[in-house]
Amino acid sequence: MATVNSVVCFFFLVNIFLSSRPTQSVPEGALITELPGFSGTIPSKHYAGYVTVDESHGRSLYYYFVESESNPSEDPVVLWLNGGPGCSSFDAFVYEHGPFNFEKAKTKGSLPTLHLNPYSWSKVSNIIYLDSPAGVGFSFSKNKSDYITGDIKTALDTHTFLLKWFELYPEFLSNPFFITGESYAGIYVPTLAYEVMKGIDAGTKPNLNFKGYMVGNGCTDDEFDGNALVPFAHGMGLISDELFEEARIECNGNFYNPLNESCATKLKKVDQVIDGLNIYDILEPCYHGPETVETAPSYIRLPSSFRRLGETERPLPVRKRMFGRAWPLRAPVRDGIVPTWPQLSNSHNLPCTDNEVANSWLNTDIVRKAIHTAEKSDVSIWGLCTDNILYHHDAGSMIKFHKNLTARGYRALIYSGDHDMCVPFTGSQAWTRSMGYKVVDEWRPWIVNNQVAGYIQGYDKNLTFMTIKGAGHAVPEYKPQESLYFYKRFLDGLPM
Protein backbone atom coordinates (compact mmCIF):
# COMPACT_ATOMS: atom_id res chain seq x y z
CA MET A 1 0.00 0.00 0.00
CA ALA A 2 2.89 2.33 0.83
CA THR A 3 4.37 1.64 -2.61
CA VAL A 4 1.11 2.55 -4.36
CA ASN A 5 0.84 5.77 -2.36
CA SER A 6 4.42 6.67 -3.25
CA VAL A 7 3.75 6.16 -6.96
CA VAL A 8 0.58 8.27 -6.77
CA CYS A 9 2.48 10.99 -4.89
CA PHE A 10 5.27 10.92 -7.47
CA PHE A 11 2.92 11.42 -10.44
CA PHE A 12 1.06 14.14 -8.51
CA LEU A 13 4.32 16.06 -8.02
CA VAL A 14 5.31 15.56 -11.66
CA ASN A 15 1.97 16.99 -12.79
CA ILE A 16 2.44 20.01 -10.53
CA PHE A 17 5.93 20.61 -11.96
CA LEU A 18 4.80 20.29 -15.55
CA SER A 19 1.79 22.54 -15.00
CA SER A 20 4.02 25.20 -13.44
CA ARG A 21 6.06 25.62 -16.63
CA PRO A 22 4.59 27.41 -19.66
CA THR A 23 3.63 25.08 -22.45
CA GLN A 24 4.83 25.53 -26.02
CA SER A 25 2.69 28.30 -27.46
CA VAL A 26 3.95 28.89 -30.96
CA PRO A 27 2.14 31.74 -32.71
CA GLU A 28 0.01 30.38 -35.51
CA GLY A 29 1.89 30.26 -38.79
CA ALA A 30 5.26 31.18 -37.26
CA LEU A 31 6.98 27.80 -37.62
CA ILE A 32 9.30 27.55 -40.62
CA THR A 33 8.99 24.15 -42.24
CA GLU A 34 11.42 24.51 -45.14
CA LEU A 35 14.13 26.85 -46.35
CA PRO A 36 14.66 27.09 -50.11
CA GLY A 37 18.26 26.28 -50.97
CA PHE A 38 18.69 23.90 -48.03
CA SER A 39 18.12 20.19 -48.64
CA GLY A 40 18.86 18.72 -45.21
CA THR A 41 17.04 18.64 -41.90
CA ILE A 42 16.90 22.01 -40.15
CA PRO A 43 18.93 21.39 -36.96
CA SER A 44 16.49 23.14 -34.64
CA LYS A 45 13.09 24.80 -34.81
CA HIS A 46 12.95 28.14 -36.64
CA TYR A 47 10.13 30.67 -36.36
CA ALA A 48 9.52 33.99 -38.08
CA GLY A 49 6.88 36.64 -38.25
CA TYR A 50 5.83 40.06 -37.01
CA VAL A 51 5.16 41.76 -33.71
CA THR A 52 3.06 44.91 -33.95
CA VAL A 53 4.48 47.53 -31.62
CA ASP A 54 1.95 50.26 -32.48
CA GLU A 55 -1.55 49.10 -33.43
CA SER A 56 -2.80 52.56 -34.44
CA HIS A 57 0.03 53.04 -36.96
CA GLY A 58 0.38 49.41 -37.99
CA ARG A 59 4.08 49.57 -37.02
CA SER A 60 5.39 46.02 -37.11
CA LEU A 61 8.85 44.59 -36.50
CA TYR A 62 9.99 41.42 -38.26
CA TYR A 63 11.90 38.73 -36.37
CA TYR A 64 13.54 35.44 -37.29
CA PHE A 65 13.91 33.18 -34.26
CA VAL A 66 16.30 30.22 -34.17
CA GLU A 67 15.95 27.78 -31.29
CA SER A 68 19.15 26.46 -29.75
CA GLU A 69 20.54 23.27 -31.23
CA SER A 70 21.59 22.19 -27.72
CA ASN A 71 18.99 22.72 -25.00
CA PRO A 72 16.44 25.36 -26.03
CA SER A 73 14.42 25.11 -22.82
CA GLU A 74 17.42 26.22 -20.73
CA ASP A 75 19.93 27.90 -23.05
CA PRO A 76 19.98 31.72 -23.09
CA VAL A 77 17.71 33.74 -25.36
CA VAL A 78 19.78 36.33 -27.24
CA LEU A 79 18.51 39.30 -29.23
CA TRP A 80 20.81 40.27 -32.11
CA LEU A 81 20.74 43.75 -33.68
CA ASN A 82 22.71 44.92 -36.70
CA GLY A 83 23.59 48.57 -36.95
CA GLY A 84 23.68 51.04 -39.81
CA PRO A 85 21.55 52.77 -38.77
CA GLY A 86 19.16 51.12 -41.19
CA CYS A 87 20.77 47.69 -41.69
CA SER A 88 18.92 44.39 -41.46
CA SER A 89 19.91 41.71 -38.97
CA PHE A 90 19.86 39.24 -41.85
CA ASP A 91 23.36 40.61 -42.40
CA ALA A 92 24.45 38.55 -39.40
CA PHE A 93 22.13 35.65 -40.27
CA VAL A 94 23.61 35.25 -43.77
CA TYR A 95 27.20 36.40 -43.37
CA GLU A 96 28.17 36.07 -39.73
CA HIS A 97 26.79 33.64 -37.15
CA GLY A 98 23.52 32.28 -38.53
CA PRO A 99 22.71 28.55 -38.79
CA PHE A 100 23.87 28.32 -42.41
CA ASN A 101 26.79 29.13 -44.65
CA PHE A 102 25.50 30.43 -47.97
CA GLU A 103 27.13 29.29 -51.20
CA LYS A 104 26.75 31.56 -54.19
CA ALA A 105 24.36 30.30 -56.88
CA LYS A 106 26.15 28.39 -59.63
CA THR A 107 23.87 29.67 -62.39
CA LYS A 108 22.25 33.05 -62.84
CA GLY A 109 18.71 33.14 -61.49
CA SER A 110 19.09 30.11 -59.25
CA LEU A 111 19.11 30.18 -55.47
CA PRO A 112 22.19 30.11 -53.25
CA THR A 113 22.88 26.76 -51.60
CA LEU A 114 22.70 26.62 -47.80
CA HIS A 115 25.09 24.46 -45.77
CA LEU A 116 25.08 23.98 -42.01
CA ASN A 117 27.36 26.40 -40.17
CA PRO A 118 29.45 24.54 -37.57
CA TYR A 119 30.06 27.84 -35.73
CA SER A 120 26.50 29.13 -35.63
CA TRP A 121 25.64 30.93 -32.42
CA SER A 122 22.48 28.81 -32.33
CA LYS A 123 24.76 25.92 -31.29
CA VAL A 124 24.66 27.30 -27.75
CA SER A 125 21.76 29.77 -27.58
CA ASN A 126 18.30 30.66 -28.78
CA ILE A 127 18.72 33.74 -30.95
CA ILE A 128 16.30 36.37 -32.27
CA TYR A 129 17.39 38.27 -35.39
CA LEU A 130 15.37 41.49 -35.39
CA ASP A 131 14.94 44.05 -38.17
CA SER A 132 14.78 47.39 -36.36
CA PRO A 133 13.59 50.14 -36.52
CA ALA A 134 10.48 50.00 -38.71
CA GLY A 135 11.47 50.61 -42.33
CA VAL A 136 14.56 48.39 -42.04
CA GLY A 137 14.75 44.99 -43.72
CA PHE A 138 11.31 43.39 -43.59
CA SER A 139 9.98 45.63 -40.80
CA PHE A 140 7.45 48.27 -41.83
CA SER A 141 4.75 50.71 -40.80
CA LYS A 142 1.46 51.60 -42.43
CA ASN A 143 2.17 55.20 -41.38
CA LYS A 144 5.28 56.40 -43.20
CA SER A 145 5.84 59.16 -40.63
CA ASP A 146 7.24 56.37 -38.44
CA TYR A 147 10.25 56.26 -40.75
CA ILE A 148 11.42 59.47 -39.12
CA THR A 149 12.93 57.99 -36.01
CA GLY A 150 15.91 57.95 -33.67
CA ASP A 151 17.69 56.26 -30.77
CA ILE A 152 15.04 56.82 -28.10
CA LYS A 153 12.06 55.79 -30.24
CA THR A 154 13.95 52.75 -31.49
CA ALA A 155 14.77 51.62 -27.95
CA LEU A 156 11.16 52.07 -26.82
CA ASP A 157 9.81 50.16 -29.82
CA THR A 158 12.28 47.32 -29.36
CA HIS A 159 11.42 47.06 -25.67
CA THR A 160 7.75 46.83 -26.64
CA PHE A 161 8.70 44.16 -29.17
CA LEU A 162 10.47 42.13 -26.48
CA LEU A 163 7.56 42.28 -24.05
CA LYS A 164 5.12 41.16 -26.73
CA TRP A 165 7.51 38.55 -28.12
CA PHE A 166 7.89 36.88 -24.74
CA GLU A 167 4.10 36.88 -24.40
CA LEU A 168 4.02 34.91 -27.66
CA TYR A 169 6.79 32.59 -26.48
CA PRO A 170 6.26 32.43 -22.67
CA GLU A 171 8.15 29.13 -22.40
CA PHE A 172 11.39 31.14 -22.79
CA LEU A 173 10.70 33.70 -20.05
CA SER A 174 12.75 31.88 -17.44
CA ASN A 175 15.78 31.54 -19.74
CA PRO A 176 18.66 33.99 -19.22
CA PHE A 177 18.23 36.88 -21.66
CA PHE A 178 21.01 38.89 -23.34
CA ILE A 179 21.12 41.76 -25.87
CA THR A 180 23.85 41.82 -28.52
CA GLY A 181 24.82 43.69 -31.67
CA GLU A 182 27.55 45.44 -33.62
CA SER A 183 28.51 48.75 -35.24
CA TYR A 184 25.69 51.31 -34.79
CA ALA A 185 24.10 48.76 -32.47
CA GLY A 186 26.68 50.18 -30.06
CA ILE A 187 23.86 52.73 -29.67
CA TYR A 188 20.92 50.32 -29.98
CA VAL A 189 22.14 47.81 -27.39
CA PRO A 190 22.80 50.01 -24.32
CA THR A 191 19.75 52.21 -24.91
CA LEU A 192 17.55 49.13 -25.19
CA ALA A 193 19.23 47.46 -22.20
CA TYR A 194 18.49 50.59 -20.18
CA GLU A 195 14.79 50.43 -21.14
CA VAL A 196 14.70 46.76 -20.17
CA MET A 197 16.32 47.58 -16.82
CA LYS A 198 13.79 50.35 -16.17
CA GLY A 199 10.95 48.00 -17.07
CA ILE A 200 12.20 45.39 -14.62
CA ASP A 201 12.51 48.03 -11.89
CA ALA A 202 8.95 49.20 -12.58
CA GLY A 203 7.57 45.67 -12.39
CA THR A 204 6.55 45.65 -16.07
CA LYS A 205 5.12 42.30 -17.14
CA PRO A 206 6.27 39.95 -18.44
CA ASN A 207 9.38 40.08 -16.26
CA LEU A 208 12.46 39.58 -18.45
CA ASN A 209 15.34 37.53 -17.02
CA PHE A 210 17.89 40.04 -18.29
CA LYS A 211 21.52 39.18 -17.51
CA GLY A 212 23.74 41.36 -19.71
CA TYR A 213 24.79 42.59 -23.13
CA MET A 214 27.55 42.43 -25.71
CA VAL A 215 28.67 45.00 -28.31
CA GLY A 216 31.07 44.45 -31.20
CA ASN A 217 33.02 47.33 -32.80
CA GLY A 218 30.28 49.61 -31.56
CA CYS A 219 29.75 53.35 -31.86
CA THR A 220 29.68 54.81 -28.35
CA ASP A 221 30.80 58.38 -27.85
CA ASP A 222 31.67 61.12 -30.34
CA GLU A 223 34.88 62.16 -28.59
CA PHE A 224 36.31 58.69 -27.95
CA ASP A 225 35.22 57.31 -31.33
CA GLY A 226 36.34 60.44 -33.14
CA ASN A 227 39.79 60.37 -31.58
CA ALA A 228 40.30 56.67 -32.31
CA LEU A 229 41.35 56.63 -35.96
CA VAL A 230 44.58 58.65 -35.95
CA PRO A 231 46.23 56.62 -33.13
CA PHE A 232 44.98 53.43 -34.81
CA ALA A 233 46.46 54.41 -38.17
CA HIS A 234 49.76 55.30 -36.53
CA GLY A 235 49.90 52.13 -34.44
CA MET A 236 49.20 50.01 -37.51
CA GLY A 237 51.99 51.68 -39.47
CA LEU A 238 49.61 53.39 -41.90
CA ILE A 239 50.84 56.92 -41.28
CA SER A 240 54.35 58.12 -40.48
CA ASP A 241 55.66 59.14 -37.09
CA GLU A 242 56.12 62.65 -38.46
CA LEU A 243 52.53 63.00 -39.67
CA PHE A 244 51.18 61.56 -36.42
CA GLU A 245 53.23 64.00 -34.31
CA GLU A 246 52.24 66.94 -36.52
CA ALA A 247 48.55 66.04 -36.25
CA ARG A 248 48.81 65.45 -32.50
CA ILE A 249 50.48 68.82 -31.90
CA GLU A 250 48.33 70.88 -34.27
CA CYS A 251 45.11 69.28 -33.03
CA ASN A 252 46.18 69.13 -29.38
CA GLY A 253 45.00 65.53 -29.29
CA ASN A 254 41.53 66.50 -30.53
CA PHE A 255 41.18 64.70 -33.86
CA TYR A 256 37.39 64.53 -34.08
CA ASN A 257 36.61 68.23 -33.98
CA PRO A 258 39.36 70.35 -35.59
CA LEU A 259 39.36 73.83 -34.08
CA ASN A 260 41.80 75.45 -36.49
CA GLU A 261 42.81 75.28 -40.14
CA SER A 262 46.22 73.80 -39.41
CA CYS A 263 44.66 70.84 -37.60
CA ALA A 264 42.14 70.33 -40.40
CA THR A 265 44.96 70.32 -42.96
CA LYS A 266 46.87 67.61 -41.08
CA LEU A 267 43.75 65.48 -40.73
CA LYS A 268 43.05 65.85 -44.43
CA LYS A 269 46.54 64.55 -45.11
CA VAL A 270 45.85 61.54 -42.86
CA ASP A 271 42.68 60.88 -44.85
CA GLN A 272 44.62 61.04 -48.12
CA VAL A 273 47.26 58.58 -46.92
CA ILE A 274 44.74 55.92 -45.83
CA ASP A 275 42.21 56.60 -48.60
CA GLY A 276 42.97 53.44 -50.60
CA LEU A 277 42.46 51.04 -47.71
CA ASN A 278 39.47 48.87 -46.95
CA ILE A 279 38.07 50.50 -43.84
CA TYR A 280 36.28 47.36 -42.63
CA ASP A 281 39.52 45.38 -42.51
CA ILE A 282 42.79 47.04 -43.42
CA LEU A 283 44.28 43.66 -44.39
CA GLU A 284 41.65 42.93 -47.03
CA PRO A 285 42.12 44.03 -50.63
CA CYS A 286 39.93 46.66 -52.21
CA TYR A 287 38.09 45.69 -55.36
CA HIS A 288 37.81 48.69 -57.66
CA GLY A 289 35.71 46.84 -60.20
CA PRO A 290 35.47 43.34 -61.63
CA GLU A 291 37.60 41.01 -59.58
CA THR A 292 40.81 39.81 -61.17
CA VAL A 293 42.62 36.98 -59.45
CA GLU A 294 46.31 36.53 -60.06
CA THR A 295 47.58 33.06 -59.27
CA ALA A 296 51.20 32.73 -58.22
CA PRO A 297 53.24 30.12 -60.14
CA SER A 298 53.42 26.81 -58.30
CA TYR A 299 57.16 27.10 -57.79
CA ILE A 300 56.70 30.29 -55.73
CA ARG A 301 55.97 29.15 -52.21
CA LEU A 302 54.33 31.56 -49.80
CA PRO A 303 53.76 30.95 -46.11
CA SER A 304 50.16 29.95 -45.45
CA SER A 305 49.82 32.88 -43.07
CA PHE A 306 50.67 35.27 -45.89
CA ARG A 307 48.32 33.64 -48.36
CA ARG A 308 45.51 34.01 -45.80
CA LEU A 309 46.30 37.65 -45.04
CA GLY A 310 43.00 39.39 -44.53
CA GLU A 311 40.85 36.49 -45.66
CA THR A 312 37.77 35.50 -43.73
CA GLU A 313 37.91 32.05 -42.20
CA ARG A 314 34.38 31.21 -43.26
CA PRO A 315 34.44 28.18 -45.55
CA LEU A 316 32.25 29.89 -48.15
CA PRO A 317 33.40 33.54 -48.28
CA VAL A 318 30.68 34.88 -50.53
CA ARG A 319 30.93 38.57 -49.71
CA LYS A 320 33.67 40.52 -51.42
CA ARG A 321 34.88 43.84 -50.11
CA MET A 322 35.08 46.65 -52.60
CA PHE A 323 36.64 50.06 -52.59
CA GLY A 324 34.69 52.94 -51.14
CA ARG A 325 34.56 55.55 -48.43
CA ALA A 326 32.01 55.06 -45.71
CA TRP A 327 30.75 56.57 -42.48
CA PRO A 328 32.01 56.81 -39.79
CA LEU A 329 35.60 57.14 -41.02
CA ARG A 330 36.86 59.89 -38.68
CA ALA A 331 33.25 61.11 -38.50
CA PRO A 332 31.85 59.97 -35.16
CA VAL A 333 28.16 59.81 -34.32
CA ARG A 334 27.01 63.22 -33.19
CA ASP A 335 23.64 64.51 -32.06
CA GLY A 336 21.32 65.07 -34.99
CA ILE A 337 20.65 63.29 -38.27
CA VAL A 338 22.82 60.23 -38.90
CA PRO A 339 22.93 59.36 -42.61
CA THR A 340 22.29 55.75 -43.51
CA TRP A 341 24.82 53.85 -45.64
CA PRO A 342 22.81 54.15 -48.88
CA GLN A 343 22.27 57.86 -48.28
CA LEU A 344 26.03 58.28 -48.04
CA SER A 345 26.82 56.30 -51.14
CA ASN A 346 23.84 57.42 -53.25
CA SER A 347 23.09 53.77 -54.01
CA HIS A 348 21.07 50.95 -52.51
CA ASN A 349 24.13 48.87 -51.68
CA LEU A 350 26.31 48.98 -48.61
CA PRO A 351 29.54 50.78 -49.57
CA CYS A 352 32.52 48.51 -50.05
CA THR A 353 30.53 45.32 -50.08
CA ASP A 354 28.93 42.96 -52.56
CA ASN A 355 25.81 41.49 -50.95
CA GLU A 356 24.59 39.56 -53.97
CA VAL A 357 23.96 36.31 -52.06
CA ALA A 358 21.70 37.86 -49.42
CA ASN A 359 19.87 39.94 -52.01
CA SER A 360 19.25 37.01 -54.33
CA TRP A 361 17.97 34.75 -51.53
CA LEU A 362 15.82 37.17 -49.56
CA ASN A 363 14.20 38.77 -52.61
CA THR A 364 12.94 35.46 -54.02
CA ASP A 365 9.19 34.90 -53.69
CA ILE A 366 9.52 31.31 -52.44
CA VAL A 367 11.97 32.40 -49.74
CA ARG A 368 9.80 35.30 -48.63
CA LYS A 369 6.82 32.95 -48.37
CA ALA A 370 8.85 30.36 -46.46
CA ILE A 371 10.06 32.88 -43.86
CA HIS A 372 6.69 34.63 -43.50
CA THR A 373 7.53 38.15 -44.63
CA ALA A 374 4.99 40.88 -45.34
CA GLU A 375 3.28 41.32 -48.68
CA LYS A 376 5.18 43.30 -51.28
CA SER A 377 2.63 46.09 -50.90
CA ASP A 378 4.14 46.67 -47.45
CA VAL A 379 7.78 45.70 -48.12
CA SER A 380 8.48 45.73 -51.84
CA ILE A 381 12.10 44.66 -51.65
CA TRP A 382 14.59 43.58 -48.99
CA GLY A 383 17.84 45.52 -48.80
CA LEU A 384 20.80 44.94 -46.52
CA CYS A 385 20.70 48.62 -45.58
CA THR A 386 17.90 51.04 -46.35
CA ASP A 387 17.54 54.72 -47.13
CA ASN A 388 13.82 54.59 -46.22
CA ILE A 389 14.41 56.04 -42.78
CA LEU A 390 15.50 59.46 -41.52
CA TYR A 391 17.40 58.68 -38.35
CA HIS A 392 18.32 61.00 -35.48
CA HIS A 393 20.98 60.30 -32.87
CA ASP A 394 19.22 61.73 -29.83
CA ALA A 395 20.53 59.67 -26.90
CA GLY A 396 23.97 61.30 -26.57
CA SER A 397 27.02 59.43 -25.34
CA MET A 398 26.53 55.79 -24.42
CA ILE A 399 28.99 55.95 -21.54
CA LYS A 400 26.31 57.04 -19.06
CA PHE A 401 24.17 54.06 -20.12
CA HIS A 402 27.08 51.65 -19.65
CA LYS A 403 27.77 53.10 -16.20
CA ASN A 404 24.14 52.70 -15.14
CA LEU A 405 23.92 49.14 -16.41
CA THR A 406 27.24 47.85 -15.09
CA ALA A 407 26.66 49.56 -11.72
CA ARG A 408 23.56 47.38 -11.43
CA GLY A 409 25.60 44.23 -12.04
CA TYR A 410 24.63 43.46 -15.63
CA ARG A 411 27.46 41.74 -17.51
CA ALA A 412 28.96 43.70 -20.41
CA LEU A 413 31.41 42.47 -23.06
CA ILE A 414 32.83 45.12 -25.41
CA TYR A 415 34.73 43.39 -28.21
CA SER A 416 36.63 44.68 -31.23
CA GLY A 417 38.10 43.19 -34.36
CA ASP A 418 41.58 44.73 -34.17
CA HIS A 419 41.92 45.46 -37.91
CA ASP A 420 38.69 47.42 -38.26
CA MET A 421 39.25 51.05 -39.24
CA CYS A 422 35.52 51.86 -39.34
CA VAL A 423 35.14 51.80 -35.55
CA PRO A 424 38.74 51.20 -34.41
CA PHE A 425 39.48 49.23 -31.24
CA THR A 426 41.47 52.19 -29.93
CA GLY A 427 38.24 54.08 -29.23
CA SER A 428 36.55 51.19 -27.43
CA GLN A 429 39.70 50.53 -25.43
CA ALA A 430 39.86 54.18 -24.38
CA TRP A 431 36.23 54.61 -23.32
CA THR A 432 36.10 51.36 -21.34
CA ARG A 433 39.24 52.50 -19.51
CA SER A 434 37.63 55.91 -18.90
CA MET A 435 34.86 54.30 -16.85
CA GLY A 436 37.34 54.33 -13.96
CA TYR A 437 36.69 50.77 -12.85
CA LYS A 438 39.35 48.74 -11.12
CA VAL A 439 41.28 46.34 -13.36
CA VAL A 440 40.63 42.81 -12.13
CA ASP A 441 42.06 40.90 -15.09
CA GLU A 442 45.13 42.71 -16.43
CA TRP A 443 45.75 42.88 -20.19
CA ARG A 444 46.58 39.38 -21.42
CA PRO A 445 46.07 37.11 -24.41
CA TRP A 446 43.10 34.78 -24.66
CA ILE A 447 43.61 31.43 -26.33
CA VAL A 448 41.69 29.23 -28.77
CA ASN A 449 43.21 25.97 -30.05
CA ASN A 450 46.51 26.81 -28.38
CA GLN A 451 46.78 30.03 -30.39
CA VAL A 452 46.47 33.65 -29.30
CA ALA A 453 43.02 34.76 -30.46
CA GLY A 454 43.24 38.32 -29.15
CA TYR A 455 43.70 40.28 -25.94
CA ILE A 456 41.47 40.99 -22.98
CA GLN A 457 41.21 43.39 -20.07
CA GLY A 458 38.69 42.75 -17.32
CA TYR A 459 37.29 45.40 -14.99
CA ASP A 460 35.17 45.11 -11.90
CA LYS A 461 31.39 45.47 -12.19
CA ASN A 462 31.44 42.73 -14.87
CA LEU A 463 32.84 44.96 -17.64
CA THR A 464 35.23 43.33 -20.11
CA PHE A 465 37.07 44.74 -23.12
CA MET A 466 38.42 42.28 -25.68
CA THR A 467 40.13 42.33 -29.06
CA ILE A 468 39.94 39.62 -31.70
CA LYS A 469 43.24 39.27 -33.53
CA GLY A 470 43.06 39.67 -37.29
CA ALA A 471 39.31 40.37 -37.41
CA GLY A 472 37.61 43.24 -39.18
CA HIS A 473 34.40 45.14 -38.48
CA ALA A 474 31.97 42.19 -38.42
CA VAL A 475 33.99 39.89 -36.15
CA PRO A 476 32.09 36.58 -36.61
CA GLU A 477 32.44 36.91 -40.38
CA TYR A 478 36.23 36.85 -40.09
CA LYS A 479 36.77 34.64 -37.05
CA PRO A 480 33.76 32.32 -36.67
CA GLN A 481 35.42 29.71 -34.46
CA GLU A 482 36.93 32.24 -32.07
CA SER A 483 33.62 34.15 -32.00
CA LEU A 484 31.60 31.12 -30.98
CA TYR A 485 34.16 30.43 -28.26
CA PHE A 486 34.01 33.87 -26.63
CA TYR A 487 30.23 34.07 -27.17
CA LYS A 488 29.61 30.86 -25.22
CA ARG A 489 32.07 31.80 -22.47
CA PHE A 490 30.36 35.15 -22.03
CA LEU A 491 26.87 33.66 -21.90
CA ASP A 492 28.02 31.09 -19.37
CA GLY A 493 29.70 33.75 -17.20
CA LEU A 494 33.08 32.05 -17.54
CA PRO A 495 36.52 33.70 -17.93
CA MET A 496 38.07 33.74 -21.40
UniProtKB/TrEMBL annotation:
Highest rank taxon of the organism: Eukaryota
Leading EC class: hydrolase
Pfam families membership: Peptidase_S10
Secretion signal span: 1-25
Any one GO molecular function term: serine-type carboxypeptidase activity
Intracellular or extracellular location(s): Secreted
SUPFAM superfamilies: alpha/beta-Hydrolases
Keywords for this protein: Carboxypeptidase, Disulfide bond, Glycoprotein, Hydrolase, Protease, Secreted, Signal
EC number: 3.4.16.-
Annotated GO biological process: proteolysis; secondary metabolic process
PANTHER family, sorted: SERINE CARBOXYPEPTIDASE-LIKE 20, SERINE PROTEASE FAMILY S10 SERINE CARBOXYPEPTIDASE
Similarity section: Belongs to the peptidase S10 family.
Listed name of the protein: Carboxypeptidase
Organism: Acacia crassicarpa
